[in-house]
Write a structure and sequence with these properties.
The chain is an alpha+beta fold. Helices cover about 35% and strands about 20% of the residues. A hairpin with a 5-residue loop joins strand 8 and strand 9.
Length: about 240
Amino acid sequence: MVAAAAVIAAAAIWSSPALAQGQAKPAATSERITFGIVTCAPGWRAPNPGVARFTVVNRSGRVATIYLFRDTSGELTVTLKPGPYAWGCDLRGAPTHVSDAEQVPAQSQPGGPGRNPIPLHVGDISREMLLYRSDVARQIGELEVQVATLADDLRGGDVAAAESDWLTAHLTWLDIGQDDGAYGAFGDLGRQIDGTAAGLVHGTADPGFTGFHRIEFDLWTRDDIAAAASAAGDARLPRQ
């Protein structure tokens, strides 16, 4: 349902119908504007100047007046001139609350405007990088020993020990940096160590299916300890 509405720009009230029905082409995407009993558009970002589209979502559980829209949600299009803007939310039976002001720039910015990024230089994080590399090198040393133990138990046919070994070694790898291989730090090698069969042409039969999940598949799903031992023996690990 459509209700009375206003867009607040600095101290001015913009209520002209032309603002909601501008002739310019609307923005391709819509920014989500959410409000509740005590919040109004938290964390919203000002768009580039021109026609903008917003999806307004009412989380308050009350009837509200939010620029042309009332009820649970809706979409509105406005033409914004450069300058400061804030969202005002007027809920029936509750105090009016207003968001922080955001600045629409004079010129469009690629990717849309936002708060200025804080420059980051290598020297600012060099200590953390050295600590990270030292910790990863230590863990890789532990991983090498654990994978060797896993391979030995697989070759010896000790399934229970091998399953325990696999879990220990895999947890070490996850501690180094989750399933994507230390947040991508190991590149393709990380995928070889802990990649799944997803996306491979031949699935679990693909030669590219290697590493922890190949051993897991052979050991738990196929009950093929010889194949698991072969996969463990062929496992590639990062060098320290």
